[in-house]
Write a sequence for this structure.
C-alpha cells in the first residue's frame, strides 16, 4: 500500500469534519494534494523526455490516445493500455499498480490471473537485471500464448529439457491459495519453463480459471445482495429477484451486467462502479474497504477528492447510525459461508451489544440517497458518475 503519513492524516481530518462547511474547508485546503489524472500523466510524459509520437511507439499505443490523456485529461478506458504505458516507461510492478489506480480505478496486477502473472514475471526479470528491450509487454503476451498452447495439450519446453507439462491434480486447491503466497512463488520464477510450471500448478489456464479469479469478491457481493433481497421480500411480502432489485435502482442493467461479467468472466468492475454497487448495497466504510481489498484495490483513498468526501460521509454515518453496521452484521452472519466474514460479524455484534449503541433520533433514508445529498450539496464535478449510478 502506497499511502503516506500525510494521506492517513488527510483521512483522519475528513473523519473529524463536523458538517459540510468543515468539509468544504478541508477540500479547499488540500486542493493541490488531491491526485488528478491530467497532472499525473503529464508529469510522467515530461519525465520520459520523449515526444508523444516516440513515447506512444515505445508503449505500443497510438499517438492520439496519449495526446487525449495529456491534453484533454481523458480517463483511460482500457486497463491493458495503462499496463503497456507502464512497461514503456520502465515502471516496476508497484508503480504500474499505482498507475492503474490513478488512471481509471482499475484493480492491481493479480498473480492468479494469467495475463497479469506474465506481466509480473517479466517486470521481475527486468528489475532483476534482465535485458530491458526483451523484457517488454510483448514478451508477457508471448508467454500467455505459450500457456494457452499448454492448455491445448501442446508440447512446451525451454529449449533445454524438452519437458512436456501436464495439468496438475488438485488445481481447485491451488486456486484458493492466498494471493500473497502466489506472489511470493512468482517472485522465485527465473525463466520461461518455470513460469509455465507456475501457471500449470496454479491452474491459470483456460476458461475455467476465469470464473475462479475473484471468488471471494463474488461471494461477498452475493452475501450483500441476498441480505437486501431478504429485506425487500419481507417489506413487499413476496419474493424479489436480483433483476427486480437492480431494476428498481434504475441502473439500466449496468449493475446486473457488472455482476455477470465478474461471476462468469472474472472481469472486475472499475473502482467507481464497484463503489457505487457497494453503496447501493448499504455497505459501511469498513465493509466497502473489505470489498475493495477482495477486488485487488486499495481502500477508500483520501488523496482522491471524491473518496475523501465518501470517507467523511461514511464515518459520519458510522457514528450517528451504528445500527446500520449492526444490522448488516446480523444478517450477513445468517447468509455468509465465509468464516472470516462470519467472525468479523460476530465481533461487531458483540461490540454493539457490549456498548449498547443507540441510534440517533430523526428520519433516516437509504445510504445511497444520503451520499447523493452530500454530493449534490457540494456540486462536485468528480462525483457526477457516482451520482448517475446512485440516483
Amino acid at each position: 500500500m502506497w499511502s503516506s503519513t500525510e494521506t492517513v492524516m488527510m483521512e483522519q481530518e475528513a473523519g473529524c469534519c463536523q458538517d459540510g462547511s468543515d468539509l468544504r474547508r478541508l477540500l479547499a485546503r488540500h486542493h493541490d494534494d488531491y491526485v488528478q489524472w491530467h497532472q499525473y500523466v503529464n508529469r510522467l510524459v515530461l519525465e520520459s523526455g520523449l515526444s508523444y509520437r516516440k513515447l506512444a511507439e515505445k508503449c505500443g499505443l497510438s499517438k492520439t490516445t496519449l495526446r487525449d490523456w495529456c491534453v484533454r485529461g481523458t480517463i483511460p478506458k482500457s486497463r491493458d493500455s495503462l499496463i503497456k504505458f507502464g512497461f514503456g516507461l520502465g515502471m516496476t510492478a508497484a508503480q504500474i499498480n499505482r498507475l492503474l489506480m490513478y488512471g481509471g480505478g482499475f484493480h492491481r496486477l493479480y498473480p492468479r490471473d494469467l495475463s497479469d502473472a506474465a506481466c509480473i514475471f517479466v517486470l521481475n526479470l527486468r528489475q532483476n537485471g534482465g535485458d530491458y528491450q526483451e523484457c517488454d509487454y510483448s514478451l508477457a503476451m508471448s508467454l500467455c500464448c505459450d500457456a494457452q498452447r499448454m492448455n491445448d495439450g501442446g508440447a512446451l519446453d525451454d529449449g533445454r529439457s524438452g519437458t512436456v507439462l501436464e495439468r496438475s491434480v488438485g488445481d481447485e486447491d491451488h486456486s484458493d491459495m492466498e494471493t500473497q503466497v502466489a506472489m511470493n512463488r512468482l517472485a522465485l520464477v527465473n525463466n520461461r519453463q518455470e513460469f509455465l510450471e507456475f501457471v500449470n500448478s496454479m491452474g491459470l489456464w483456460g476458461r475455467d480459471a476465469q470464473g475462479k479469479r475473484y471468488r471471494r469478491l463474488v461471494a461477498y457481493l452475493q452475501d450483500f445482495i441476498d441480505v437486501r433481497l431478504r429485506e425487500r421480500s419481507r417489506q413487499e411480502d413476496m419474493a424479489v429477484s436480483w433483476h427486480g432489485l437492480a431494476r428498481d435502482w434504475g441502473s439500466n442493467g449496468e449493475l446486473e451486467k457488472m455482476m455477470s461479467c465478474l461471476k462468469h468472466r472474472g472481469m472486475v468492475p472499475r473502482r467507481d462502479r464497484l463503489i457505487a454497487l457497494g453503496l447501493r448495497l448499504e455497505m459501511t466504510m469498513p465493509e466497502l474497504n473489505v470489498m475493495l481489498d477482495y477486488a485487488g484495490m486499495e481502500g477508500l483513498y483520501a488523496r482522491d477528492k471524491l473518496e475523501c468526501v465518501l470517507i467523511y460521509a461514511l464515518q459520519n454515518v458510522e457514528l450517528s447510525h451504528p445500527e446500520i453496521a449492526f444490522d448488516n452484521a446480523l444478517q450477513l452472519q445468517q447468509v455468509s459461508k465465509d468464516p472470516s466474514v462470519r467472525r468479523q460479524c460476530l465481533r461487531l455484534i458483540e461490540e454493539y451489544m457490549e456498548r449498547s449503541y443507540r441510534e440517533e433520533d430523526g428520519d433516516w433514508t437509504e445510504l445511497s440517497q444520503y451520499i447523493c445529498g452530500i454530493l449534490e450539496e457540494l456540486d462536485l464535478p468528480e462525483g457526477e458518475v457516482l451520482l448517475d449510478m446512485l440516483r
In short: The mean pLDDT is 86. Residues 215-390 form one domain.
